[in-house]
Amino acid sequence: MQFWVGVENFAKIESARVCVNKYTLFVGPNNSGKTFLMQLVQGLSNKIARLLEEDAMDILLEEKIEGYGKYLLNQGNVAQFVDYINAKLHLKKEQLVKEIFRKEIPIEKLYIDLELGEGVSYQIDITDRKSLENEEVKQSVNQDLLAFGIESPDINNTLTNGALSAIRNAGKNRATIELWVSMDKPGLYLFRNLLKRFLEKSSLYLPASRTGLMLLYRDFFASRTDDAVSFRIEEGELLENKERYGGLTQPIYEFLRFLQTYAEAEGKRDIYRNELSFFEDNIIEGHISVNKQGNFSYQEKDDANMVPMHLASAMVNEVAPLELALTSGMRCGRFIIDEVEASLHPQKQLQFVRFLNRINNSGVKLVISTHSDTFVSKLNNLYVVSKLARKKKDDGVLQKFHLQKEDLLQPESLFVYEFVCQSNGKSVVKEITPDSEAGYQFELFAKSAMELYEESLRLGEVQLDD
After folding, report:
1. Where are the domains of the chain?
2. What three-state secondary structure class fits 13?
3. What distance in Å separates the CA atoms of residue 466 and residue 197, rounded to the nearest whole number?
4. Residue 378, CA distances (Å) to 173, 236, 381 in order
5. What sections of 200-313 are H helices per DSSP?
6. Runs of H (alpha helix) within 223-345
7. Residue 300 and which of 31, 187, 197, 328 are 20 to 30 A apart at CA?
8. Structure pTM?
9. Nearest alpha carbon to residue 244 among 266, 229, 264, 223
10. C-alpha–C-alpha distance, residues 216 and 391, integer Å
């Protein structure tokens, strides 16, 4: 399933419609709106499901009998379901933008879209708790919970606290989500939890200038009082304190908060063992650790000494949050990385593209922006190699380019967008369609390369004149 976010006349952006749950690349000049759009996507990651009300269930209801309900999201009702959400988004768009950016930013239209894919549907079954009295069913639920990442599950406790879910494959083009729930729970509460699986993505935004923020986070939170993380009640609704983010946007505050509360989770290094080994060997050439006081340190390869993070290179500080996110206790299904190439030498950028492909292949979704022609050229080369390797079904292609299967990407999952500035000061976000053989061509980088080429010709002419 593809999940899209679209805007019209938002900040610097005249129009945009971008896929945000696969592998998405933004390129474009400074001040064209890339950061605004990335922070909007991050801010929406946990807000859309709360717009759903009781009548949303009726759109998906397929069958209902005593003790059982079946809900189906398919090609037949997805458009109606999306229209429902977008109607709510239209009413709430100014409020949502203000919550994310902590100030009013003009926005004319905000919408989402879902593309299920041909033959794909999602079924949600709700069954009475009494079905769990069957030991066979109970054992099956336990296995599903373990597969879903919930360790040592207590079924009764889980049910008491809300719905529990398990995703099962039911054929090539069908996903079935079976939920065992307490039928006395409010329908709206249940439905919101169900639809979070479709509409929301656990996500971490990594802002540009991560080096400075890595050094800032302790000072920032040291100056915050308890009021900074308090709540208020208005009209009977619990709301976040308006001063909570201390002048920062919500995504940047959440990044700093992540750094402050980081703790390595048991078993996470095992899950991403291969990806982290590549990261430490080929990019930072060392290891990052954190002590009990929350202080980060860096240890260079073949060096027994640990140095505080503020003494490590800017490159290490820029990329360190990726290792921290992969090893932390947070469930992070997506990275949104602004200026992904920051502080990376061109040779390191080549390796970093391979690393991002590897974590994407492990299930982490990506939304990234870059100003680097080196980065996009390497990504494009791997895109072309990936298509060749799939077409030829021959490992010789990989050997020729000194690559491994983990370095490749899924060509159909890569979405590339160029931010093009207009004469009215606004930018239009255009999806780039790749050439069948050469891959992606970028107008922005081609123009810069041509200017340098013509300049070199003129220098040659001047030298001949002398």
Report:
1. 61-86+93-199, 208-230+239-332
2. strand
3. 70
4. 32, 53, 5
5. 210-222, 250-261, 268-271, 273-282
6. 250-261, 268-271, 273-282, 314-327
7. 328
8. 0.82
9. 229
10. 48
